[in-house]
Amino acid sequence: MILSQPDKGWSWVALFAAFFVMFVEGAFMGALGIIHLALLDRYAESNMKTAMAGSLFVCMNTTGGILCSALVERYSCRVVTVTGSLLFTVGLLICALPVSLDVVMFAYGILAGIGSSLTNTAAFIVVGYNFKQRINIANGISASGMCFGSLVMPPVVEMLRAYYGNTMIFVILGCMSLQQAVLGALYFPAYLEHSRKKRTHNEKTKQSSLVKSVCLHWLRMLKNASFICIIGYLCLLQLGAFVNYLHFPKFVTTLGFTSMQASYLLTVKGVFAFFARLLLAAFVNSNSYNIDLTTLMFGTCTFMALASILLPFYGTSFPGLVIFCIFGGLYGDSVIGILNALNIDIVGYDNFASATGIEFAVMGIGIFVGPTLVGLVIDLGGTYTFCFSVTGAILLLAGFLSLIAGTLKSPHRKELVQGDQVLDVFLEQNNSSEEDRNLYKTNL
């Protein structure tokens, strides 16, 4: 079996595929509020119940990361992506049938959400298995695919909804999700993925089941105080971010603007998010100022928190909404592009895939709770500006958690050996083996 080497050859093809898988994911995330409007128009149910469909979709998208990481450990990123794409498509096609909102909540929220989770999480993991020296820039490129999708697709989805209606739009979305199966077929086996499985093969064969193996990985990582702070940060970050994703288009229409204008605002957000992820990844990849990743996370979270808290004072006009979208794009969740590097930094390669799954699962909790509670507040007579201000305070708390994570992180020592241009990385963490260190020296 020919294995793709880190940072070389087919690794770039895998990155290309991951970019467009993330593009499809970004299209759905960017159009989340548009789909919410379609369901409100189609069923005329309460804001809270309708919001639960979108919240369940994104919750399953992230919570299913645990399942995805376990399946990647057992099979491969390719198998997981193709399977997820098929589930994603079936769930969306069911929504095109004359069914109730309860069925849509299951098909779109749970079935399509789990399928989306498999493709989304595998796209993150496959980049980590194909890159080492250029992992930050590779993560930035793949993560920017989601931003590019959220940049391009919201107006397109809104135009298609206006032309084909609130039912047939799900058929079109199903055709889009099916393309991920083709892209997933390009995830060839990688050397880092193979070597990681080989190192843990003996341990797994001694264990009674895959579930037991995965649980042992989780328990080891949950002893890491810095990792606990990171997953708390990600939970609160996504709670605030997806309140904006789901409810922002409806908020815009309550101010007297059209749903098409709301989709244009989402495009503005996508433009700035696209460049923010690329620039942040490039900065971290060079990092000539030696700034800690958790410090960057605190800074981006704080700016987004202030933009949300102050929204009632400037967000009632269209220019004010544009400013809010610019801040949302620049600082909303741009740190996702450096998540792989942060995980490797904190838990090491042995626990990298499992850490990604746990983080996505915890993010799903925040994603489900935030938009659903906002829907309840709106049904009870609350205002969107009040809800956005509260989520801003939550984002500020998330930023402080990232700072705490930085203080609890184990120290690293990195030396660049000038003679042969080999990066000698000594990972002084309990959960990074000697073989990990030799692997760095061999491949870099």
Automatic annotation (TrEMBL):
GO cellular component: membrane
GO molecular function: transmembrane transporter activity
Family matches, as InterPro entries: MFS, MFS_dom, MFS_trans_sf, Proton-linked_MCT
Localisation per UniProt entry: Membrane
Parts forming coiled coils: none
Residues annotated as domain Major facilitator superfamily (MFS) profile: 14-410
Pfam family, one: MFS_1
Keyword Transmembrane helix carried by entry: yes
The protein, known as: Monocarboxylate transporter 4
Species assigned in the record: Mizuhopecten yessoensis (Japanese scallop)
Organism lineage string: Eukaryota, Metazoa, Spiralia, Lophotrochozoa, Mollusca
